[in-house]
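--- STAGE predict ---
source: upstream dedup step, 1 unique chain passed
mode: sequence only
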Amino acid sequence: MTNKLMDMEKVLKALAYHKRLDILGLLFKKKEAHVCEIADMLELPLVTVSRNLSTLTRANLIRARQKGSFLYYSINPNQDHFAKSILSILKSNLAGKKYLISYSEARLLDPRIRQSLKNFIEPEPER
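--- STAGE serialize ---
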């Protein structure tokens, strides 16, 4: 397998997990965040966030910047064409809408899946 194909595989595998998509969505909006901020905002354990940040960094989708003893993460602007294209699609889908899944669509999902996608589902309308 060529290096280019291996890089494409890394990107696709990194994007194949909803928690990493949550992290990317947050970084699109916030531009830069510390691991503790990400964990707090997404209501995830620190170890989960750290592990997923590491995967996204290895796929060259995000980068870390050290400031003092803290690492701040942001979207990596120095990506290959494939990664830029994929992230551009993701960003346009996340930026234009507050929620990617309507409440009525979410009701059809398995409760476990619905729970894992909660950050992308619009809240139940008030009656």
